[in-house]
């Protein structure tokens, strides 16, 4: 039940300008030049643990540059973290919503002001984002998640059953009985903020395993939570080895939920792990996972070629194509392809790939050596493939960082691996279809990939748009009309997809928060009957 202050609906956090010459750009430059190596501890119950078992964090665009060392927890420390969160669970659950929401709002203010430059710089260096990609992530979206989660929890608590003249009913919006295991991906600093605070605002305690590749920025966020007054133990920061941490978490009878964002394969393995011992848990764990995508852009013959080309560039190559929503397969009518491909070639030559500290850079490096090697292999194979024509790009280089050129491939076989598999890099596969094969192309898009995360349709023909929307009803959880398929805003486009793309619980909305509550409904009768006979 909600009592106390009401928090107004937040507005999206506006972007700060870091254009050269501004004070913000100056502070950012200084932060990027910092050479201190950060020691990232495991934090349990407010206590920091350092170990000999460390992992180095290096800048993907300058892999000689050491940024941080992660101090991994031991198996018994992961167990201790779970036990510790249990000790604080009741007190945290019993706090008012206003108390919990105040902590999230304080953290949002800290990030919006004092820590903004620091967390953006960490996201730029650790995850190789330009400021144009970092500020909307570790600045705006992270702040939005905190404020909207606080606001949306209030909406959930306000939802109450009907009462009648003879009895009063209420829903006690209890947290889950046990802890939530939050596992976050590398590609958005903000996601770690959501995976942890969405369960926490609903009164749950959380075991957080961040991605090692984003741990630097994630740890700054964690420090903001501590400074905001999050009680020790509510969220324990456990940057452990993935399989070990998961084995320990899944061995606990108190595992009440998993809040995951990452690849479909890992989420499926988590699901199987939980299913294989479902009778061992006190409560059936809630599994929420937002996973991979093979996101499409479909152009109708009526579309404007230039608008399509720009949407493809922004949609496919921002952040090196490492967004779950990135355009990675496109379907362009033959009549439009000469103009679209010409514009793609011309514009892609203008995009600068390199150091993210340079404000003219459009793309930094891909996240790791493993990703670089996989993409290099795929591009080498594409060059020898009769079904594939190189439209633009195709080069890779590994000094000083893991760089992959923005690459467009024309693929004649619409069922080719390049059209079906998520690559998570700056590679866009285009299938050119005959203008009169529009209907067949809609069916093809729907059936081509196991994913259903985002998609976009370009058309100036309203009937064509309507038809495509209907046929592709299950092909995307977030559909864009005459827009690129990326850039969802909290509160405006609640995010998530179906099929192999996850459980579609819509991050940043009240729908997600419902998964972290287990309501108890209480009926109290004013005058209990004193006779067993009906109608007496
Ligand atoms: P990933 O699956 O490799 O890793 C995600 C997290 O899972 C990391 O913390 C990692 O350490 C952990 N992990 C890895 N193996 C594990 C295991 N066996 N058990 C438990 N945890 C394990 O994904 P990534 O490379 O960090 O992120 C990229 C993927 O995330 C892409 O597939 C992308 O589409 C997806 N993604 C989806 C969304 C969405 O909202 N749908 C958003 C961002 C990213």
Automatic annotation (TrEMBL):
Specify the enzyme's EC class, one word.
Answer: oxidoreductase
Q: What is its EC number?
A: 1.2.1.88
One example of the protein's molecular function in GO is: L-glutamate gamma-semialdehyde dehydrogenase activity
Give the record's GO CC terms.
cytoplasmic side of plasma membrane
A Pfam family that the UniProt record links to this protein: Aldedh
Instruction: Name the SUPFAM superfamilies on file.
Output: ALDH-like
Pathway(s) per entry: Amino-acid degradation; L-proline degradation into L-glutamate; L-glutamate from L-proline: step 2/2
Q: Which reaction does it catalyse?
A: L-glutamate 5-semialdehyde + NAD(+) + H2O = L-glutamate + NADH + 2 H(+)
> What GO terms describe the biological role, i.e. biological process, of this protein?
L-proline catabolic process to L-glutamate
Q: Which InterPro entries match?
A: Ald_DH/histidinol_DH, Ald_DH_C, Ald_DH_CS_CYS, Ald_DH_N, Aldehyde_DH_dom, P5CDH/ALDH4A1, Proline_metab_enzyme
List the Gene3D superfamilies hit by this protein, alphabetically. Answer: Aldehyde Dehydrogenase, Chain A, domain 1, Aldehyde Dehydrogenase, Chain A, domain 2
User: Where do the Aldehyde dehydrogenase domain residues begin and end?
Assistant: 53-510
Does the keyword NAD belong to this entry?
yes
What are the protein's UniProt keywords?
NAD, Oxidoreductase, Proline metabolism
Which family is annotated?
Belongs to the aldehyde dehydrogenase family.
Protein name, as recorded: L-glutamate gamma-semialdehyde dehydrogenase
- To which species is this protein native? Pandoraea terrae
What lineage is on file? Bacteria, Pseudomonadati, Pseudomonadota, Betaproteobacteria, Burkholderiales
